[in-house]
Amino acid sequence: MANLSPIILLLALFSLIYGNAIASHHVYRNLQTQQSSDSSSNQPYRTAYHFQPPKNWINDPNGPMRYKGLYHLFYQYNPKGSVWGNIVWAHSVSKDLVNWIPLDAAIFPSQPSDINGCWSGSATMLPGGKPVILYTGIDPNNHQVQNLAFPKNLSDPFLREWIKSPKNPLMAPTVANKINSTSFRDPTTAWKGKDGYWRVLIGNKVNSVGRAVLYKSKDFVNWVEAKQPLHSAQGTGMWECPDFFPVLNNGPINVGLDTSVDGDHVRHVLKVSLDDKKHDYYLIGTYDASQDVFTPDNSQPVLRYDYGKYYASKTIFDDGKNRRVLFGWVNESSSQNDDIKKGWSGIHTIPRSIWLHKSGKQLIQWPVQEIENLRVNPVNWPTRLLKGGELLQVNGITAVQADVEISFQVREFQKAEVLKNWADPQILCGMKGAGVKGGIGPFGLLVLASKDLQESTAVFFRIFRYQNKNLVLMCSDQSRSSLNKENDMTPFGTFVDVDPLHENLSLRTLIDHSVVESFGGEGKACITSRVYPTLAINEKAQLYAFNNGTSSVRITRLSAWSMKKANINGN
Amino acid sequence: MTSLPSITLGDEKLIESTCRQTPNFNLCVQSLKSFPGSATADVRGLGLIMVKVMQSKANDAINKIRELQRSAPSPALTSCASKYNAIVVGDIPEANEAFSKGMPKFAENGANDAANEATFCENGFNGRSPLTQQNNAMRDVAAITAAIARQLL
């Protein structure tokens, strides 16, 4: 008997994406206890176009990949509640990285090598287009081990079922290798060297030395630990979710490379999630393939992908559009009690294209172009002056669910406040929030603002004069975002490597109920934050451009769109 | 005469060195030593013991809340019941699994949240709290637990 279910699912997928949503029984059977309509009034914080399941806890994106024209995203999911625990690999597919169809969990405890948990891992495409997954399992002794899984049926484009190697675990801490059994996890996508050997990294630490342990294999089953880690660093603690990939040196924007590519035209990026700091950091450097050693260009300062809430991220090479795409997890800033009450916790950011800036000094991130398909009802302002003290409402869009791009031209540089000593940008944003008047700035956007401005989240720039140069500070100030003080409303900030003397200062902000994702300097500085207003919800939220500095700035561009709701996991 | 093996001394040293890196050395040592098995536990094991101590303090608070709900119910008290429920149903199981399986950041998360919930409960009474002793106890042991989790990161 022919197996029609993939065809039915495929039809459901296409109709969902192309607008005629059919509540296919086949697709929605996977949603278990489907809640009856959660109205926006009792779930004001659910996002409209960010990745999340209908309920419960999620964390790391796992094994993202592209197969037979479909994107797959797996993720750490607790089927039983809204805190971390009982973790399995939930699974969704998408044609466009924006609309997602939920499937059954792909990987869950079923053999000794993962009986106590199926933690994070990555997908690698083997020759012949065969995807495999390496992931961390927790064994009966609560030791962290690495396991292999592969699709049961390669002709199912949805790859719904996965088989585990009977040889699992393939990599494990032993008395001989002295690997710390509670600090050995998160295998990366593997890359193939010119010698035909696959290489993979596993996050590890020895005391407080963070390490990316390297394993090599010819057949993807038998793995041998390399004599030294790919890279390590004193005092950094456990390296979670490592990622290692090539980027084009001085290449065209938004072009990526397959993970195995190497050569003179290429730099390499090593990224780690630091357990201790709760942030994702990356280094740009040189990969010596003969020694399997990575040498960063600079050890200080180490850059972050995102200066707000962002963790456990990983990239894939998207061979459909020849770009590298970054997926990341954003946890809640609300209390556990609130998470239990609302019944869910955790979202992912909009996937981002990522590439090396032409200066070679940093990576650029930008929301994937497909998200722009949700834009409707454009509002465009003619260029205008924004005087010191002015507040201008942006009308005509759903302020709670919007995409805004604004550019500023600054002129009166003599009015910039002098910064005598370098300060941590996050601390600076905390000391000088949106309400603190400045010379040039603060100017930017007030998002998720209530009409009376009791609540607002400010995303803005402030320009300093530091060592005879212009220094641009970008802040996401959540300190007034909600009257509910049980939320974590710490402001975030970073400096933006843009000289406003020579170019306009741009800001793009994606607003989606309880998440604010901001990109300064065309993707040079990213800040993601979570906010939970009590007044500025649904149709009551407002959007403003503001300038609380003494000098005027010119808005050279403002474009704002309402964002349509995406079809995400049957939301 | 042969010298005594230093096993016992070594393990007391671990309790002490671990507790020195927490906000409340005395409470930490006292809490740990009151549990059997602490003498031979590693840092992860000490963390798991502190989670048991957190459970015990949460139970104290919940019992007091129930008692007060009979005699003097109030919205603040109801709110506290909800917060302690979150501690017992969310934070403590999370911290337990996290210490057991080697993901200390979620143990730190759970413990920090428990301390916050106790603080929010206390704040809800605007200075006239009947639960100050229980909330302080919860907050103090949770802070110690979080500090032990930090040592494993």
TrEMBL record, chain A:
GO cellular component, one term: membrane
Organism superkingdom: Eukaryota
Membrane topology: Single-pass type II membrane protein
SMART domains referenced in this protein's UniProt entry, alphabetically: Glyco_32
Extent of the signal sequence: 1-19
Protein name (Swiss-Prot/TrEMBL): Acid beta-fructofuranosidase
Protein family membership: Belongs to the glycosyl hydrolase 32 family.
Glycosyl hydrolase family 32 N-terminal domain mapped to chain residues: 50-367
Organism: Arachis hypogaea
Pathway(s) this gene product operates in, as recorded in its UniProt entry: Glycan biosynthesis; sucrose metabolism
One Pfam family per UniProt: Glyco_hydro_32N
Localization per Swiss-Prot or TrEMBL: Membrane; Vacuole lumen
InterPro entries to which the protein is assigned, alphabetical: ConA-like_dom_sf, Fructan_Metab_Enzymes, Glyco_hydro_32, Glyco_hydro_32_AS, Glyco_hydro_32_C, Glyco_hydro_32_N, Glyco_hydro_beta-prop_sf
Catalytically driven reaction(s): Hydrolysis of terminal non-reducing beta-D-fructofuranoside residues in beta-D-fructofuranosides
Glycosyl hydrolase family 32 C-terminal domain segment(s): 392-562
Gene Ontology terms for molecular function: beta-fructofuranosidase activity
Keyword tags: Glycosidase, Hydrolase, Membrane, Signal, Signal-anchor, Transmembrane, Transmembrane helix, Vacuole
GO biological process: carbohydrate metabolic process
From TrEMBL, chain B:
Keyword Secreted: no
Residue ranges annotated for the Pectinesterase inhibitor domain, each copy included: 10-148
Keyword annotations from UniProtKB, A to Z: Disulfide bond, Signal
InterPro entries reported in the protein's UniProt record: C/VIF1, Invertase/methylesterase_inhib, PCW_Enzyme_Inhibitor, Pectinesterase_inhib_dom
Keyword Secreted: no
Coiled coil ranges: none
Any one Gene Ontology molecular-function term assigned to this protein's record: enzyme inhibitor activity
One Pfam family linked to the record: PMEI
Annotated family: Belongs to the PMEI family.
Protein name: Pectinesterase inhibitor domain-containing protein
Organism the protein comes from: Arachis hypogaea
